[in-house]
Amino acid sequence: MQCVKKVLPDLFWVGADDRRLSCFEGVYGVPNGVSYNSYLMLDEKTVLFDTVDKAVARTFFENVAYVLGNRKLDYLVIHHMEPDHAATIEDLMFRYPDVTVVCNNKIETLLKQFFDYDFVGKIHIVNEGDVLNVGKHSLTFVNAPMVHWPEVMMSYDATDKILFTADAFGTFGALNGHIFADEVDFMHDWLDEARRYYTNIVGKYGVQVQNILKKASALEINYVCPLHGFVWRSHFNDFLEKYLQWSSYTPERKGVCLAYASVYGHTENMANILAGKLVDRGVSVEMFDTSVIPASYIVASAFKNSHLVFASTTYNAGIFVTMENLLHDIVAHNIQKRKVALLENGSWAATSGKLMKDLLSKIPNTEFITSTVSIKSAPKAKTMDELDALADAIAAEIVPVKQTDEAPVEEAVVEKALTVEKEAFFQFSYGLEVLTTRFNGADYGCIINSAVQVSEGDKKKVAISVINKNHTCEMLKKSGKFVVSVLTEEAPFSLFKQFGFQSGRDVDKFEGADYNDRMANGIRYLPVYTNAVFSCDVIQTFDLGVSTLFIADVVEAKVLSKAPSATYAYYHAHIKPKNNPAPEQKEGWRCKVCGYFYEGHELPENYVCPLCNHGPDDFEYVPGAPVKKVKGFICKICGHFEPYDGEELPADYVCPLCNHGRDDFEPAER
Ligand code: FEO
């Protein structure tokens, strides 16, 4: 029987969970299962995005048949040919022989390698930037090599602003009936598995992930549909921020990942003593026994923490096997910029410390803290001193210096010009609201952050302040009545754009809304993303120059939900997209409120942001970077660019990403 989820009215998840798989890709334990996502779009044409692993083929085909109903399948878009998504393609071709496969050249090559099926006349090749119109939706294709195989591409639907991201933004774990990330506490309950998925599956390819993030930053994205894990429709920036950190090998926190390999417990004893000393100094520690904990968990912790400590006994004159495997794994995942400390043990001749150091020296920008702490058989009193010194050295880099109790030296009083820092006002805990009013039969609305209760009593009073330039302010002065809808943390950025970044003089901000809820005074309110609404009659106004302060009687108020209100601080931290990087070579001015980028050396006097109406004070200067092209060679297999100012790469050159030789490179400039 089918088991499908609706993502949008014309887009369905037709994938499946697998909770019986013990080892994903034959190496990564998935105790919470894994999902194989496939999506089916019903437009004038029907479009299936990827297939699934063979383990869940039956459910998948039932799902596809159910959602299609009597319709035929027109297109299969293939983003990635790894068999956890592609194993059922041939079976699909037999079931739907009229389907056209949409893919790039590299995917076509792999199709023919994996399957004996005759694809002649059934493939529509697309290149970077090509567009496929399927009715209401049009799909643009974007190559994403090495995220996580060379052939990977993504699709962007400009209509509903959906990015189909292949493996990117996936997570381990079955969906368990959910489909959207906002249906679970993702950052609390799922981030660890998302990190383990990212770091182990695509962690090595940080540069390529950064490239695709740059491409994505130019798009407006409302939905992110990966091939594993949840669909994102809100708060995606929280997850994106993690990807920016992981792909740039930036630690998420100042803390220690401490992994040890111990045979009879003495090396473990030394590691435990160090952990205790670190915690006593205020350092956070994640600790792993490499004989028990699979490497994928420790690799993820290594990406998370700024400092790595490895402790190993000497075994067969080398590093203990579980530690040696772990270190190879960490180096292979291209982790960078870490501080490392080593502990070794050897009853006869301790060699593990030197060998670990040799291995870890391959990590770019590694710094070893103090010399290796070495013991023979078991820790002794002298070891305690050495571990104290190591803990001091690590803590000095991690724990902020405490203020002493000594009386501060009195400073001379200096006459200074007083400053009013704008950012200080961000510390007020403003809420965010949609203000609506109605005049001459038309509805108006805008975003405000100023509604407060100013008086108790039988007739409660509220105050709001509205910028005079806002059309809603003008209409409110005429109508004398308004409604305030208090926004919740679920409010998406698109809502702020709808009511905040355009003017009611130019557009009807309610056009296309699928609600028309009104208070008793006939003024519209927002029935979604709102926890309370107030109808108010204006009793007094004060012209404040730029804004007008309205004092009003509350005549009706009701609670719509218990969702927490969105504060101004929450909006900035979680809802507002992080600043798009300005076009790299361009000089200009970026609006600090909405991120709009004005290109040019000078910002015109009295310039007003075309998106959010804020003035020059809210723009910051972005210096341009000189355009400089670099000569080199590009790998035809994986897209790796190797800067090289010569006629030909050296004969023994090997691609650091896909291991192909110079014959697979062609000249290029970046
Ligand atoms: Fe989920 Fe790279 O396959």
Query: What ligands are attached or bound here?
Result: MU-OXO-diiron
What proportion of the residues form beta strands (DSSP E)? Answer: 25-35%
Structural class: alpha+beta
Adjacency order of strands in the biggest sheet: 1-2-7-8-9-10-11
Task: Summarize the amount of helix as a percent range.
Answer: 10-25%
Mean of residue pLDDT? 90
How many beta-strand runs? 36
Low-confidence stretches: 407-414
Model description:
The strands form eight sheets. Strands 1-2-7-8-9-10-11 form a seven-stranded mixed beta sheet. Strands 17, 18, 19, 20, 21, 22 and 23 form a seven-stranded mixed beta sheet that branches. A seven-stranded antiparallel beta sheet has the order 25-24-28-29-30-27-26. The two termini are 52 Å apart. A hairpin with a 5-residue loop joins β34 (631-635) and β35 (641-643). The longest helix has 18 residues, at 381-398. The relative contact order is 0.06. It contains 15 helices and 36 strands. α5 packs parallel to α7 (236-247), α5 packs across α9 and α8 crosses α12. 24% of the residues lie in helices and 26% in strands. Bound molecules: MU-OXO-diiron. MU-OXO-diiron binds at residues 80, 82, 84-85, 148-149, 167, 227-228.
